[in-house]
Design a protein that fits this description.
Elements (H helix, E strand, L loop, with lengths): L1 E4 L16 E6 L8 H14 L2 E10 L6 H7 L1 H30 L3 E9 L3 H9 L4 E6 L6 H11 L4 E5 L13 E5 L4 H16 L2 E8 L11 H9 L4 E7 L5 H12 L3 E5 L13 H8 L5 E4 L1
Parallel strand pairs: 2-3, 2-5, 3-4, 5-6, 7-8, 7-10, 8-9, 10-11
Antiparallel strand pairs: 1-4, 6-11
Helix pairs in contact: 1-3, 4-5, 8-9
Length: about 300
């Protein structure tokens, strides 16, 4: 099942200075739906990034095992039908919330519903993400499926993913992000993230290159200066900040720095030490994917 509803929000207006043009927002429906407050925050992130946003709602096909005895004793098909209805109702509520939010902030918004088997949601979202500028995924304690979807997008879609917090204050700003930090360690994923984020960086007033010293051997004093040169070639003025991890978790170091400098948006590479990504994600990657503290663009 695939259903597309092109809902142009009343009063939505084009933004000739928008950083991105074609954004996907991933919404889940089962066993828990994307919470309403998380949708509110994600829509406001999309508004600040600019462009058109399509909410992709994944509706789960819960199927009963083909077992005549079990069906006779337990009524499995009836139970499965009830779970399918739960997924459909939760998704409709989430998409209605998205539409209302989009209208409220003047965002050009569309909807698409895509059916998926249970545990296959990430593959469905990845397939749609490959033809978008980026995909936004609200990540938090619930629903449990949001973080695995963000992981698959990061490593399999070939496009950047923006993870947004499910909780926290609602952003009242509508213009481009003013203060953006780049977590720079000189790695390939970090370089990819900078390239993907260039439209965003060109709009920011304050771009900061953050290198956390003593966290890994590749991050040494002065490693961010050549990135500053490269950004200048694109008309972007950036400042280098070097901080010592002081024995802290790297994601905690990022969060403390963001709070100190008033960073609104973070750009970073996503790293995994092996193909067994679910187990051996890099420390910063795992920390931010599990609990993003500000909107964060990640690329691999």
């Amino acid at each position: 099942m695939s259903e597309t509803r092109r809902l142009r929000s009343p009063g939505a207006r084009g933004n000739r200075l928008m950083a991105f043009h074609d954004i996907l927002l991933a919404l889940v429906s089962y066993p828990d739906a994307t919470p309403g407050p998380a949708i509110d925050r994600a829509v406001r992130v999309a508004r600040r990034l600019g462009g058109e946003v399509t909410a992709l709602g994944v509706q789960i096909r819960v199927e009963a095992p083909k077992n005549m005895l079990a069906e006779a004793l337990l009524g499995l098909e009836s139970l499965a039908a009830g779970e399918r209805a739960k997924s459909a109702a939760s998704l409709r509520e989430a998409l209605d919330r998205f539409s209302n939010d989009a209208r409220a902030v003047g965002l050009t918004a569309f909807q698409e519903i895509q059916a998926s088997h249970l545990y296959d949601e990430a593959h469905v979202v990845v397939g749609h993400a490959r033809t978008r500028d980026m995909t936004i995924v609200p990540v938090g304690p619930a629903p449990a499926s949001s973080q695995p979807i963000a992981e698959h997008l990061l490593f399999d879609s070939g496009r950047p993913v923006v993870v947004t917090p499910e909780t926290g204050p609602l952003d009242a700003e509508t213009g481009p992000y003013r203060t953006v930090a780049i977590a720079w360690d000189g790695s390939r994923p970090a370089a990819r993230a900078v390239g993907d984020a260039l439209p965003l960086l060109k709009q920011a007033r304050d771009v900061r290159v953050l290198s956390v010293i003593n966290e890994k051997p590749s991050v040494t004093a002065g490693c961010g200066h050549d990135l500053v040169r490269h950004l200048a070639a694109h008309g972007i003025t950036a400042t280098v900040d070097e901080v010592d991890d002081a024995g802290r978790d790297i994601a905690e170091a990022f969060q403390a720095y963001a709070a100190d400098k008033g960073v609104e948006f973070l750009v970073m590479g996503g790293f995994a030490r092996s193909r067994v990504r679910e187990v051996i994600l890099g420390g910063a990657t795992a920390g931010v994917l599990a609990k993003p503290f500000i909107p964060t663009l990640m690329a691999h």
